[in-house]
Design goal:
Blueprint: E1 2-13, E2 16-25, E3 28-29, E4 39-43, H1 54-57, E5 64-73, E6 82-85, E7 91-95, E8 119-121, H2 122-126, E9 132-137, E10 140-145, E11 155-162, E12 165-170, H3 174-182, E13 193-203, E14 206-216
Parallel strand pairs: 4-6
Antiparallel strand pairs: 1-2, 1-5, 2-3, 2-4, 5-6, 5-7, 8-14, 9-13, 10-11, 11-12, 13-14
């Protein structure tokens, strides 16, 4: 079945990519029964954690409207958005206007994925019915720490305030990570950031919250 979505994440995941976005029809976002945007995450059946081969998705940019052939939904725990797709079917059809992103942000949620910490337990994750969200933040700061394993790729984290709670989350957006290698202040003057947040797979007993996509506002 042909399905289109607004690409809001094309992030690093287990040696491949995690692609996700909001479903749309002819460029118009679709909404679910809870009056929230209908999120979708194409996954592969050929990789250990559903990650997509980077060669299939590396050209996708955030805000691209992408078409793909979906075979079936494959929800897994809190990652209810997962669908199997046909490799090689990802095609860019248009670009979603930045000015229309505000309507897709869930600014009224009290907590991000159920709590105010940087991760959730297995028990907490079982009570969730989503693993993706889009928010807008104006109070933010990046921190950079050396990566002893790969010095050319330092660890980047984003500190931000959202609904009176402070979060400190790792950034997995490849474009942002690459830009930081050349200019550590390239987002310093952005008035706001749109953040696609993802709740990851189990890692050392916890599901960590990740900044999977960053879109600067204007």
């Amino acid at each position: 079945m042909k399905t289109s979505f607004i690409c809001l994440a094309n992030s690093y995941k287990e040696g491949g990519r995690c692609v996700a976005g909001i479903e749309c029809h002819n460029g118009t976002p679709l909404w679910n029964e809870n009056d929230k945007p209908r999120w979708i995450r194409p996954v592969s059946s050929d990789t250990p954690h559903g990650e997509i081969d980077s060669r299939l998705s590396y050209k996708l940019k955030l805000l691209d409207i992408v078409e793909m052939d979906v075979s079936e939904p494959v929800p897994e725990g809190h990652q209810v958005e997962n669908v199997l797709f046909h490799p090689g079917s990802l095609k860019v059809r248009d670009v979603f206007p930045l000015k229309n992103l505000d309507a897709l942000c869930d600014q009224y949620q009290l907590f991000l994925f159920g709590n105010s910490s940087n991760a959730v337990s297995m028990e907490e994750a079982e009570r969730l019915s989503e693993s993706l969200t889009l928010i807008q933040v104006a109070d933010f700061q990046f921190t950079i720490k050396p990566n002893p394993v790969n010095p050319s790729k330092p660890h980047i984290r984003l500190h931000f305030e959202f609904n009176r709670h402070h979060y400190n989350l790792p950034v997995t957006d490849p474009v942002v990570l690459r830009e930081f290698q050349f200019d550590k202040n390239f987002l310093k003057n952005a008035p706001e950031l749109y953040l696609c947040l993802s709740l990851g797979i189990l890692h050392e007993g916890l599901h960590y919250k990740l900044v999977a996509g960053i879109i600067p506002g204007k």
